[in-house]
Amino acid sequence: xxxxxxxxxxxxxxxxxxxxxxxxxxxxxxxxxxxxxxxxxxxxxxxxxxxxxxxxxxxxxxxxxxxxxxxxxxxxxxxxxxxxxxxxxxxxxxxxxxxxxxxxxxxxxxxxxxxxxxxxx
Length: 121
What we know:
Number of strands: 11
Strand content: over 45%
Distance between the termini: 37 Å
Largest sheet: 7 strands, mixed
Radius of gyration: 13 Å
């Protein structure tokens, strides 16, 4: 049974930083595509960062490039999203996801967390 649990959200002033964590119990340490999505109020859910399966690299949405960094610690089975230089438009619910393949759509991922709220003012 795979469970993804996000933490680390909160309220921060513009220009500040947060680090989100996603504890992935039951998920194999390799062979999965893992990503972070976010949903801002009144907007569709968008993928902000992804680590491709097999260490094939990372990719970021244009809106967060240079400010966000996705990483994973296989020993701890944890996914991270370091968010720096935060802007009010980064406000939203952030979700971690995992699957055997990589998708643009949140609903295509086999495993999805419940989300953690980030508010930037």
